[in-house]
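Action item from last week, closing it out:
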Amino acid sequence: MAIIILGVAGTAGAAGLTTLVADFASARTQFEAGRAGSHDATERAQQLFSQLLRRDAQNPLYLAYYGSTYTLQARDSLAPWTRIKLINQGTALLDRALTLLDHPPASARMVTARPGAGTAALETRLVAMATFIALPETLFHRRAAARREYQRAVASPDFSAAPPDLQGHLEYEGALIAREEGDVATERSALQRVLALAPQSIDLAEVRARLAELH
């Protein structure tokens, strides 16, 4: 998925921007390793996104990733009450990120002139929906929120201009949402779009296998 920075101080200069991009890339790499199962990488990602937020506390993208690290910690926790606490912490942070995205404060430092616009906004929604749809619906009731963020993402005027990898990930999460809802037609259409976009970081063999099951 493309690496983008949503909030950057206008006076940071080229060197500062380069450092910020590198720091975000490092945090995101650790996050992906955490998603793949590494407890240590999850802890490191949380630390790195916390550091980024100290530099820009109103950045929805940083906040979304930071919130999602709490749900990864919950996955790795043995105590049920700790899992629930961590998930609630994480979803609260994700809700705040989405609120900042849709209603940014006047002091927010946005590269884009339109609030909630741009590739970074799409990635923020992607992080939220991917986190929400992975949670047990009977306990946390986040499926509707995941669907809402998917619909907002694909309806955005920025969607068609987004990198194919990001579009593909959004469509893949849309397929997972449809699958959870038992909507076979929507799932099939979304998976077909994933194949057309061919994002490198998604297992397309798995997508084809699922499409074969749906026919």
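Closing note: Confidence is low (pLDDT under 50) at residues 1-11, 110-116.
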